[in-house]
């Protein structure tokens, strides 16, 4: 693939020279010649074998492929032990048992809220870290639980039967959902297990996953946020890295005693080695690798740019608000980290979608897949129209995208005042319908409760609302154009700052008495109100709801088409291609390996030496500052110990906290990030273009736990597998 890129670059250079020689630099002829040459080159790009990834399910483990690629064929007991040693965390992360006494390992960034929740008056555990000196000091975390996948059943035939019998797309989705609910409820009624019907291959297959839940989780050890998130958002999604992103919990049974799991991962003191085969076992959140070219182009052109703008706007609002209110900075810390992470992630995905070579690879896969379907009459009859149907739905979505993202009455990027006004206008619209046609909160038996809820005045900080509203107006202009009637009404020829200030100064939505009067006189009072937010919402909400109706129709059609596409994929390729991620357990193979970037080479491993180099290279800068206990390490602390490492495993969000294991089922690392090159992994896995997983090294964790934090009890438990 790199050869293709070099050839394209060569064509660009040649055309530029020819243009200068001929005296027509920038001419349309030269440009069109370049574009023709570029497109001809891109047409030769081929899909890679693993472009759809290597996130294998435990339903269909690729044992033959493991044997072919690595000379290693795990048996059933190996697979079962690995599955039962792994966990899914309620925070949207992965985890694993690492001792016979219920010690659990996950990431620090998966546990930040938990650390805040357990801290006592005067404590700041994100700054100081936490270590339970004795079992009695382990602190219970409210609302955090871990699920263990104990059984898998195939229920595809049951779900497909009701869908195939349905008369319409809408009926098919309703029948599917009802069947899934029935299956889950029947299992949970007869057992203490949690049931989840998992959609695989976009509906090509359905599996029933049964989980054992552990609800008593107590924190044992966590480093300081500054050590876990060393490098801050500058180093996020990059490599080389120097993060100690780890937290240890202990799970307890109903009797208040530590869980005694039969299956758990032993700890490797040596850790991962370069070129070693390693496996990630975790719960990747979601991917779109089975999307068609038209779907990806919609993400590229419409959805991702809009969401990215909303995230950017929110980030700017939080930063500006924290500058105006320094006392609020700590309160906003977690939100800022979350927004910054999302900002970088979406930018990376968008860059991937704008990469001509990556899109050419996806286009070639689409072509091959469609050709395989059309080559078999039976498959062509069942699935041949899917691609055209999906293309049609994308075209419909493009027609309403402006309203969907520019006129939203709630959610990210929408001021609380506008959201309140939107809810009031929706009350009017729903009240005009027959009761049977109303949405549930507005039906006769629920509308009084809805009115009471709407009667609570907006209490948001006016300074924050001002900042949010300014950005909201900017989004309206971006999505709808400056001459849209709603935009003209909102701005009235004024700058966004001025328009926002004027609206907030004259609204009654923060006044409990005036708001109560509005609701008491509804719907007429709302229809006649001159409140600026209500006036704007009366124009915006009907347009948004009309667009949302189109989006909902498309969504129903998409669900059916995605199912058909998934069934076609399974019929053509079987389990040779893994399904999209579903925040359920997967195993992903890879090799510990560095890569070339920016004209140099990223090493397979980093060491604590590198961390201290960053610390001293950016003196006084917060992102690379080290907590006090780290600044003068004891002589026993080995700076040459591997700290983080890179590997070719396939991961995505949700894999955070996943154990990295070797063939002997030993912990050799802990997943915590991917590099910039991994971010297009939402739609394509491109190991050859530098996609890497980033993990904390098991020996680095042990070295820091023992010598920096003096948490000998934890260190000995990791080494022995038993509580000390």
Polypeptide structure, described:
The protein starts with a helix and ends with a helix. The chain has 724 residues and is α+β, with helices and mostly antiparallel strands. The model is unreliable at 1-26 (pLDDT under 50). The chain is globular, with a radius of gyration of 28 Å. The chain folds into three domains: 2-42; 56-145 and 215-288 and 579-720, Thrombin, subunit H (Beta Barrel); 293-555, no CATH class. Strand 15 and strand 16 form a beta hairpin. It contains 27 helices and 21 strands. Strands 2, 3, 4, 5, 6, 7, 8, 9, 10 and 11 form a ten-stranded antiparallel β-sheet that branches. Strands 1, 12, 13, 14, 17, 18, 19, 20 and 21 form a nine-stranded mixed β-sheet that branches. A two-stranded antiparallel sheet has the order 15-16.
What can be said about this structure in brief?
This protein is of the alpha+beta class. It has 27 helices and 21 strands.
Mean pLDDT: 92
Structural class: alpha+beta
Oligomer: single chain
CATH architecture of the largest domain: Beta Barrel
CATH class of the largest domain: Mainly Beta
Strand fraction equals: 5-15%
Q: Share of helix among residues?
A: 40-55%
**Got a strand count?**
21
What name is given to the CATH topology of the largest domain? Answer: Thrombin, subunit H
What is the total domain count? 3
Major beta sheet summary: 10 strands, antiparallel
The residue ranges in which pLDDT falls below 50 over 5 or more consecutive positions are: 1-26
Determine the number of helices (DSSP H or I, runs of at least 4 residues).
27
Euclidean distance between termini CA atoms: 52 Å
The radius of gyration computed from the alpha-carbon positions, rounded to a whole number of angstroms, is: 28 Å
Question: Based on CA inertia axes, which overall geometry fits?
Answer: globular
């Amino acid at each position: 693939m790199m050869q293709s890129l070099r050839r394209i670059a060569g064509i660009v250079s040649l055309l530029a020279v020819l243009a200068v020689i001929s005296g027509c630099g920038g001419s349309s002829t030269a440009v069109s010649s370049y574009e023709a040459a570029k497109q001809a080159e891109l047409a030769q790009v081929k899909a890679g074998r693993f472009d759809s990834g290597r996130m294998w399910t435990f339903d269909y483990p690729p044992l033959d492929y493991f044997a072919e690629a690595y000379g290693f064929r795990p048996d059933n007991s190996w697979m079962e032990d690995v599955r039962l040693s792994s966990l899914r965390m309620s925070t949207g992360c992965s985890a694993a048992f690492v001792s016979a006494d219920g010690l659990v390992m996950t990431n620090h960034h998966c546990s930040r809220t938990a650390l805040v929740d357990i801290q006592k008056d005067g404590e700041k555990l994100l700054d100081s870290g936490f270590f339970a000196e004795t079992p009695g000091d382990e602190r219970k975390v409210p609302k955090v639980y871990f699920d263990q996948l104990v059984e898998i059943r195939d229920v595809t035939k049951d779900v497909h039967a009701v869908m195939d019998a349905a008369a319409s797309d809408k009926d098919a989705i309703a029948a599917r959902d009802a069947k899934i609910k029935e299956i889950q409820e029947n299992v949970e009624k007869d057992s203490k297990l949690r049931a989840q019907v998992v959609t695989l291959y976009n509906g090509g297959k359905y599996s029933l996953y049964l989980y054992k839940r552990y609800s008593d989780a107590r924190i044992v050890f966590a480093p300081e946020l500054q050590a876990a998130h060393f490098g801050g958002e500058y180093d996020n999604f990059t490599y080389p890295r120097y993060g100690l992103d780890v937290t240890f919990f202990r799970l307890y049974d109903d009797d208040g005693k530590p869980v005694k799991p039969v299956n758990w991962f032993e700890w490797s003191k040596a850790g991962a080695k370069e070129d070693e085969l390693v496996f990630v076992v975790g719960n990747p959140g979601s991917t779109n690798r089975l999307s068609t070219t038209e779907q990806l182009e919609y993400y590229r052109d419409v959805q991702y740019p809009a969401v990215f703008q909303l995230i950017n706007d929110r980030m700017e609002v939080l930063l500006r608000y924290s500058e105006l209110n320094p006392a609020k900075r700590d309160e906003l810390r977690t939100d800022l980290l979350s927004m910054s992470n999302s900002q970088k992630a979406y930018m990376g995905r968008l860059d991937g979608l704008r990469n001509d070579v990556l899109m050419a690879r996806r286009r070639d896969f689409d072509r091959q897949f469609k050709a395989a379907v059309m080559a078999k009459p039976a498959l062509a009859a069942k699935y041949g129209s899917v691609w055209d149907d999906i293309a049609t739905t994308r075209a419909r979505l493009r027609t309403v995208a402006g309203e969907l993202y520019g006129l939203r009455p709630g959610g990210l990027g929408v001021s609380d005042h506008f959201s309140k006004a939107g809810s009031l206008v929706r009350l009017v619209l729903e009240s005009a319908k027959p009761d049977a046609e109303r949405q549930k909160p507005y039906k006769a038996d629920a509308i009084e409760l809805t009115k009471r809820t709407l009667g609570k005045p907006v209490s948001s900080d006016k300074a924050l609302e001002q900042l949010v509203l300014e950005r909201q107006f900017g989004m309206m202009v971006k999505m709808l154009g400056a001459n849209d009637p709603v935009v003209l009404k909102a701005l009235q020829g004024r700058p966004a700052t001025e328009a926002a200030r004027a609206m907030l100064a004259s609204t009654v939505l923060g006044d409990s008495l005036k708001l109560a009067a509005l609701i008491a006189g509804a719907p007429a009072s709302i229809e006649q109100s001159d409140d600026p937010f209500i006036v704007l919402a009366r124009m915006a909400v009907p347009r948004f709801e009309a667009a949302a109706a189109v989006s909902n129709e498309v969504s129903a059609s998409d669900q059916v088409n995605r199912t058909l596409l998934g069934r076609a994929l399974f019929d053509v390729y079987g389990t040779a291609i893994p399904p999209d991620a579903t925040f359920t357990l997967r195993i992903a193979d890879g090799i510990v390996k560095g890569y070339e970037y920016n004209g140099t080479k990223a090493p397979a491993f980093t060491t604590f030496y590198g961390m201290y180099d960053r610390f001293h290279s950016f003196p006084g800068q917060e992102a690379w500052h080290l907590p006090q206990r780290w600044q003068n390490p004891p002589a026993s602390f080995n700076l040459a110990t591997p700290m983080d490492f890179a590997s070719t495993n396939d991961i995505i969000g949700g894999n955070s906290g996943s154990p990295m294991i070797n063939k002997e089922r030993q912990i050799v690392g802990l997943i915590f990030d991917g590099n910039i090159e991994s971010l297009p992994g939402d739609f394509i896995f491109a190991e050859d273009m530098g996609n890497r997983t980033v993990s904390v090294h098991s020996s680095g964790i042990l070295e820091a736990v023992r010598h920096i934090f003096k948490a000998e009890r934890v260190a000995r438990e990791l080494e022995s597998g038993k509580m000390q």
